[in-house]
Write a structure and sequence with these properties.
This protein has 273 residues and is α+β, with helices and mostly antiparallel strands. The protein has eight helices and eight strands. Strand 7 and strand 8 form a beta hairpin. It starts with 6 loop residues before the first helix and ends in a 26-residue tail after the last helix.
């Protein structure tokens, strides 16, 4: 800390120490002073360079070493599964112990664990990066053809020769063919699922709505109360929470309950909460 550090500087230092932040700028950024600060708790490097334009401050470059997150899902390779081994595993499982708990949730968890363990052992799987822009029909064949087409396109841009152009043209034709086949295969599969009656009604309607571009969830209607509209789920929930307690209050709590003729031979003298 500098001898001329003021109260704001001391509070900044306390904040960095409390949050575990590290100051990365070690070289002056204006004349002989470090005026541009970079504080982080990430793995990063920092360098300073000459200023841009007419600025009298040096330019600060920060490089963060962070990994790009991609949602991945596991794809089971059923065509390579050892079904005989799985059959033996399931036959030797302790099913009586799995169904022993009285709670159905515990039974469901036990059965799921046995089946999942069998799949993990006898069915190979691979992790596939899930991209939000991928079409439902975009399978592994399309992915390989698209990767090949992009690779040859970059090669053509780098070196524009007749050989590279012919290879890229052939790869583009191959991708277009693979795409058409994948679309046709998906459409045939979809028609079969919707027509053979194997889907439940919920799954059937979800498939129809997804294919037609409709949302599978219906929005709650707009609520109106005293000329005020409630549109968001949070506002509606808060309004319900305010309304329901008022419906459960008596206008006069001291007034005795009305006398009602007993419909049975049994009665209760007193209720306590």
């Amino acid at each position: 800390m500098s001898r001329t550090t003021d109260a704001a500087g001391r509070r900044t230092l306390e904040m960095c120490n409390a949050l575990g932040l590290t100051h990365l700028v070690k070289e002056p950024t204006r004349e002989d002073q470090i005026l541009d600060l970079v504080m982080t708790d990430l793995d990063a490097t920092c360098t300073t360079h000459a200023g841009l334009g007419t600025s009298d401050h040096h330019t600060v470059f920060v490089k963060l070493n962070v990994s790009l997150y991609r949602d991945k899902r596991k794809v089971w390779q059923y065509d390579k599964a050892d079904y005989w081994g799985m059959r033996g595993f399931l036959a030797s499982a302790d099913w009586s112990r799995a169904f022993k708990p009285e709670d159905p949730e515990d039974v469901c968890t036990n059965v799921t664990n046995i089946i999942t363990d069998a799949m993990e052992i006898y069915i190979p799987g691979k992790l596939v990066s899930k991209k939000t822009g991928d079409k439902v029909w975009f399978d592994d064949h399309c992915k390989r053809a698209a990767t090949k087409k992009r690779r040859l396109f970059r090669k053509l841009k780098k070196k524009n020769t007749k050989e590279n152009k012919d290879k890229f043209t052939e790869a583009r034709k191959e991708y277009n063919h693979v795409e058409k086949v994948a679309k046709r295969r998906y459409n045939n599969k979809l028609k079969k699922e919707l027509s053979d009656g194997s889907l439940s009604s919920k799954k059937w309607w979800n498939t129809v709505n997804t294919t037609s571009g409709k949302s599978t969830r219906a929005d709650t209607l707009v609520l109106k109360d005293e000329h005020q509209a409630y549109t968001s789920a949070k506002d509606k929930a808060e309004k319900f929470c305010q309304t329901f307690p008022t419906k459960c209050q008596l206008d006069n709590a001291e007034e005795p309950a009305p006398q009602v003729q007993n419909s049975t031979a049994y009665s209760k003298e007193q209720n306590s909460l």
